[in-house]
Amino acid sequence: MAADRELIKTTLEFSKKLNVLYAEDDEVLLKATVPMFEQWFNNVRCCKDGQEAFDLFKNSEMKFDLIITDINMPNLSGLDFVEKVRQIDEDIKIIIISAHDDTENLLKSINLHVNDFLPKPYDMLDLAKILKSIKEKNLTFATNKRELEERFERLVDNNSHNIDK
After folding, report:
1. How far is CA 86 from CA 27, 80, 81, 94, in A?
2. 5, 21, 45, 75 - which has most CB atoms within 10 Å?
3. Rounded to whole angstroms, how far apart are CA atoms 23 and 47?
4. Dihedral over Cα of 27, 16, 115, 20: its sign
5. DSSP letter at 62?
6. What is the sign of the dihedral through the CA atoms of 97, 31, 11 and 139?
């Protein structure tokens, strides 16, 4: 517990400087997470679909440091949103959140240089670990791809193990 508190404390020192674009279509989840995100980040701008998120990203005067996006959303999926963002900004940090961990979405995330994948349900400690990783490693494309591939392999191994039970 003390280690978890220390992780959150040091992560907050970093995360409180970040401007975040958060795309999530689930209103219940938005209402639950936005107050926490507002405590964790400098500014949080929310969108309910990928197209709205892309329009905000493209037209906002605010410089976003981090995107947190769901995959399955109306009008424009989270991955299609990320693909459009990558055409404008190759370096912005992106975390994909999803209740689904299917192979196709994970592979597309890797190819889009997503920094990490956070499966739902998650808690703030899970997010803190990812933010710490982003801060410490200042991920390059090669490192990012390798880590996501390893995470993908672990997810596949875990799912295969669960299926075998």
Report:
1. 26, 10, 9, 10
2. 21
3. 5
4. positive
5. S
6. positive
DSSP at 17? T
Q: Extract the tokens encoding 103.
A: 């192979």
CA 91 from chain centre, in angstroms, equals 14
Q: Which residue has the tokens 């710490």?
A: 132
Output the DSSP codes for the chain.
-HHHHHHHHHHHHHHTT-EEEEE---HHHHHHHHHHHHHHSSEEEEESSHHHHHHHHHH-SS--SEEEEESS-SSS-HHHHHHHHHHH-SSSEEEEEES---HHHHHHHHHTT-SEEEESS--HHHHHHHHHHHHHH---HHHHHHHHHHHHHHHHHHHHHHHH-
Q: What is the mean pLDDT of the chain?
A: 85
pLDDT tens-digit profile of 61-83? 999 999 999 999 999 999 999 99
134: closest CA among 2, 5, 4, 20? 20
pTM: 0.79
The pLDDT, as a whole number, for residue 139 is 40
What is the per-residue pLDDT for 138? 59
Rounded Cα distance between 148 and 93, Å, is 14
Instruction: Identify the segments of the chain with pLDDT beneath 70.
Output: 101, 137-147, 160-165
